[in-house]
Design brief:
With 171 residues, the protein is an alpha+beta fold. The chain contains 4 helices and 3 strands. Helix 1 crosses helix 3, helix 1 packs parallel to helix 4 and helix 2 runs antiparallel to helix 3. The radius of gyration is 20 Å and the shape is elongated. It starts with 10 loop residues before the first helix and ends with a helix.
Amino acid sequence: MTPDTSPSLSPEIQQIADQAYFLRGKAIGAYAQIEFVLADMCLQFWEWPAYRHLKGQFPISAAARVEAVTVLFKATGPLAKHWKVLEPLLAQLKSYEKHRHLFAHGHLMLANANCTPTLHFRIFIQSKDGVGRHTENWTLSQMESITSDISAYAGRFGLLLDRIYAEHRLT
């Protein structure tokens, strides 16, 4: 049973459960914003004369979008001057993938053992030996920290894109 469906939660525990779900959504939303921006960059910049020859199949996964954006910004053309600022941002995105996957696809449960609320994420993971269930234990503070990191990262990514779009009069 998930915490939001249990009628027996105390108001304090319900508040923790609500905060955990809020943080989960905030982290997923920030990551989704970045994925959208990567796709938007591909679609807009592939139409520029300097980059039309790079136009390819629309990248669905975040990794494919990063690869396509990397090709665009490393190519000779007006975007190349932004590569040194963009490169570390693209590299940092990979560090958030595991958390995004866990938050998006994991089953979140709240345990209250020894009067200490703990968050449990359970997720199925494919390995060479088959599928297994993986569990991670988190505190609310850990969720707040990673959510804050991902949100700040999305903000930095957005500011860079705003600057590039303003410079080239895009929307």
